[in-house]
Amino acid sequence: xxxxxxxxxxxxxxxxxxxxxxxxxxxxxxxxxxxxxxxxxxxxxxxxxxxxxxxxxxxxxxxxxxxxxxxxxxxxxxxxxxxxxxxxxxxxxxxxxxxxxxxxxxxxxxxxxxxxxxxxxxxxxxxxxxxxxxxxxxxxxxxxxxxxxxxxxxxxxxxxxxxxxxxxxxxxxxxxxxxxxxxxxxxxxxxxxxxxxx
Length: 198
What we know:
Layout: H1 2-8, H2 11-25, H3 32-39, H4 43-49, H5 53-71, H6 75-78, H7 82-99, H8 101-109, H9 115-140, H10 150-162, H11 164-167, H12 178-193
């Protein structure tokens, strides 16, 4: 049985197992022995694919960050009024979070104890700043309430979006639809942030 698993093992399946173990045990609480047992392969087989657990962490958080930063290059994030662009980015952020749930969960749990974790935290801050810039632009264009503190609004917005990793679970036969969740987040956030239409 072990031989069959070894024959079909890929860097992608190894990464998936590593992310699951990191999320369950915490990155610091995970050893190569834990990864080896969870994957059902020897430690030397893991080292055949990666240099160590930090490389697995780097690949995992990069996947989450690539998904998030990719949103900022999509047409919906680049064209139109700033309020429409920030709503688009928020909706797509929810969709990426749901689509890459284990990877984004891990990204949101890094503490900054390693070089990779510090890099991931810096990239997360950069993403937050880019969204804050869109909110500022929306306020300057008169579409966002003038009495809203942008830093606070950014933190509250990401607090709501990022909390999904704690409770959202995909259900094959039902449960909250990702589109429904994205709609709810956008309506809850921006109905309160938009200036009242006359």
